[in-house]
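Quick one:
INPUT:
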């Protein structure tokens, strides 16, 4: 971990923070190979509801595959831990919310830090077993875990397949046109070594889940193209505190940027105790338990 948490030029350029009016803050954690920019839609929605928000760049992210492979899930958690401490210094309550690996990191932080007021997890992924994933991958990946950390195998990488976790046609065509380079600092390939760290983090959540006694919101798309809703159901059974699990009906894996992103923001704000806003539009979106 040495040196990985030292602020880099990428971290300074890509991380962001907005000051709110409630005295409450939300730490927003991007996904594996992602970057803080993917959290901006959610950040703006939460900020409009009064929350301060901070979206740090996770250690090893924001530059290239080599830097990512030099980090592990504990380094990523260290980034979340530092950002949480900074928010805690000037806010009465601090919550965590994250997509996929970011959500798991938020839970890992909540397990070790009782001061985390609550957590929201979007599109939890134990396995890539959604409808757009090759069937053999879900079965083979757990068997490959003992070998995925080997130097040669770690560098093997996979391109994220179309539709890139997006049901919104405009967004996914933009991703296709730019070969995934829409979010500054995000990578368009996933190294096997990083996948290995994702699985190690998921195993950690299974071990410490009972220590997460804070309220947890789990949001997942019914038609998630990357991770089946059974991933969310499994997570709900692991956690030690009250769980609110909801399935969304008009988006894919990237629920925080897809067609129901405003709904995701509003459900999260409500769950974290934001006062209701008169006339807040929610037409055209729905969710159910």
């Amino acid at each position: 971990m040495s040196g990985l948490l030292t602020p880099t030029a990428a971290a300074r350029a890509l991380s962001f923070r907005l000051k709110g009016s409630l005295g409450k803050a939300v730490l927003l954690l991007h996904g594996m190979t992602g970057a803080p920019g993917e959290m901006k839609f959610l950040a703006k929605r939460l900020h409009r509801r009064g929350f301060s928000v901070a979206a740090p760049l996770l250690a090893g992210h924001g530059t290239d595959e080599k830097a990512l492979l030099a980090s592990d899930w504990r380094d990523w958690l260290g980034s979340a831990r530092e950002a949480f401490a900074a928010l805690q210094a000037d806010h009465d309550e601090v919550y965590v919310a994250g997509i996929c690996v970011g959500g798991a990191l938020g839970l890992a932080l909540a397990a070790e830090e009782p001061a985390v007021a609550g957590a929201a997890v979007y599109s939890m992924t134990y396995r890539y077993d959604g409808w757009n994933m090759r069937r053999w991958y879900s079965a083979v990946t757990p068997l490959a875990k003992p070998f995925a950390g080997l130097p040669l195998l770690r560098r093997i990488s996979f391109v994220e397949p179309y539709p890139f976790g997006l049901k919104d046609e405009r967004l996914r065509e933009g991703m296709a046109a730019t070969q995934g380079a829409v979010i500054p600092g995000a990578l368009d390939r996933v190294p096997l070594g990083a996948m290995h760290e994702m699985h190690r983090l998921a195993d950690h959540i299974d071990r410490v889940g009972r220590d997460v006694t804070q309220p947890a919101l789990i949001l997942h798309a019914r038609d998630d193209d990357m991770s089946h809703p059974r991933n969310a159901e499994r997570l709900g059974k692991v956690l030690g505190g009250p769980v609110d699990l909801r399935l969304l009906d008009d988006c894919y894996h990237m629920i925080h940027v897809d067609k129901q992103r405003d709904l995701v923001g509003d459900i999260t704000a409500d769950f974290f105790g934001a006062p209701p806003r008169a006339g807040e539009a929610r037409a055209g979106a729905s969710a159910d338990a």
